[in-house]
Amino acid sequence: MFRIMDDDESKTLDFKEFQKGLNDFGVAVEKEEALKIFSLLDQDGGGTIDFDEFLTALRPPMSNARKQVISEAFRKLDKTGDGVVTIEDLQNVYNAKHHPKYRNGEWSEDQVFRAFLDNFDSPYDKDGKVTLEEFINYYSGVSASIDSDAYFVVMMRNAWKL
């Protein structure tokens, strides 16, 4: 849907493309209502909707069981218990020396840790610190592709050795 709406292939939707896209897909709304929806989707307030913003808006809500296991994994990473996962937290739970780019000398341990954190960090504010909200946001994307709560919980428990 996003690619079809992205007429200029900029990988973002401006309001004109968004409004035309709604119309093309048979969603008849007044301009004012379309503008309200557009503003809600434009999370960073940049005047366009990027693919991540679009996907975030379409994700179904997660069950409490999923949120709980995600929180458990976050607490495991957050060794200091301050609500933020940093490189210092990772040093006790993630062995960078097994990473291929560390092994071939391309990256330092800190670069491996930073790349790991960047997976979970907000795409709008890559600060090397991951909050519970950012961690949950990352896993809500994973969650959207898994139908069964039981399977998601087992996958998380196995992945994080919970």
From TrEMBL:
Keywords (A to Z) from UniProt: Calcium, Metal-binding, Repeat
Pfam families: EF-hand_7
Top-level taxon in the UniProt lineage: Eukaryota
Residue ranges occupied by any EF-hand domain in the UniProt entry: 1-28, 29-64, 65-100, 108-145
InterPro entries, alphabetized: Ca-bind (IPR051581), EF-hand-dom_pair (IPR011992), EF_Hand_1_Ca_BS (IPR018247), EF_hand_dom (IPR002048)
Gene3D superfamilies per the UniProt record, alphabetical: EF-hand
Protein name stated in the entry: Calcyphosin-like protein
Organism the protein comes from: Acipenser ruthenus (Sterlet sturgeon)
Lineage summary: Eukaryota, Metazoa, Chordata, Craniata, Vertebrata
